[in-house]
Structures are given as C-alpha cells and as structure tokens.
Amino acid sequence: MKIALFDLDKTLLSIDCEKYLFIYLQKKNIVSKKILNDNEKFYKDYENGVLNIELYTEFFVKNIVYNINKKILLKFVNSIRKMYITEMMNILKLHKKKKHKCIITTSSYKKISNPICKKIFKIKDILSNDFIRKDDVIKPKIKGTPNIGYGKVKNFKKWKKKNGIKKCKTFFYSDSINDLPLLNYSNYPYAVNPDKKLLDELKKNKKIKLLIF
C-alpha cells in the first residue's frame, strides 16, 4: 500500500489558512487589528519552529471559535478556493490516479482545515488539531496529541493502527521545518518551497528532495 501525506498550509495551499483567516476577519471588522497583530506574533513563532501550541490554542479559541459561525466559515473557504499551488494540485491528482491513499496532515484546527480539505482538495482523510469539548462547550485545549512536530508522526501511526495498516510506503510533502520529524519518518519526503530553516536542513539531509514551484 502507498500513502501520500500532504501538509496543508503553504504546501497545497499557497497561503497559511489560519493567518489568512485572521486577515479576512479583520477586514470584516469581526476581529480587531490588535488581535491580528497578536496572531502575527504566534505565526512568527510557528515559522521559527518554537510555537507554544497550548498558548496559541487558548488565543485561537477565544478570538476565533467564539466569533465565527458556519456561514462566515463557508464564505471564507469560498474566498480561498483558488489559492492553491497548481503544481501541488497536479501531484495530488497524480497520487489519486495511482490509487494511493491521500491524507492531509495539518497543525491547523479541524474547524478551519477540514472544510478546506474537503471542499478544495476533495480529501476526507484529515489529521488535524481539535479541541476538547465538555457538555457541548469548547475548551481552549487540544484533544489528544497536538498534530505538530513529532505529534504528526504519532498521529499518523495511530491512524495506521486504527485502519489496520502494518506495511506501507509513504510520501510526504511539506514546506515547514516543523514537519521535519514526519519528513524523516517518510519513505519519500519532499520539501515544497521550503522555509529557510528547512532549506538549511536540506544541505545536510540528502534524503529529503527539494521541490520549487
């Protein structure tokens, strides 16, 4: 069996969906410029591979989850429906044509990422971050293992076990240094328009192949 794993933001999408969501909501006056600027600080931490996912989750739940409904979310998804990297869309289609199992694994939150994955990329198998819910109330904490860094490896292993998969060959495409553990774990890892830290890693890590579009 062959499995093709894809990061979402800046790999399939040409943007970071959560960063762009804050921009979108600020333009609609749903969130303030201060919140937009605060999110930018978290985004810089993510780019540098030092994001405190617990603090960001609290921030995200407080400022996004409680401020958007399904109608707003649908409009947002429609607004970015063409913001994908054409070459990566073609690679995704090629894997589908070859009957490979295609999975999107993202550190973005399920509430935002899943509608994007399903509507734009037609993928139903998604590994993402979700929130703890108690008595139908969303808590500002991540459910299970955060799907970031080595957590992506752990959650993929859990997915394989759940689906009874013992042997497989894996492809993985990502732009981010945060995904280095899963890139190293995969049989065929690809760095797609990599960030500076991942590009530096490629100088010593010959296993990961470079894709520039």
TrEMBL record:
Top-level lineage group: Bacteria
InterPro entries named among the record's database cross-references: HAD-like_sf, HAD_sf
Any Pfam family: HAD
Protein name as catalogued: Phosphoserine phosphatase
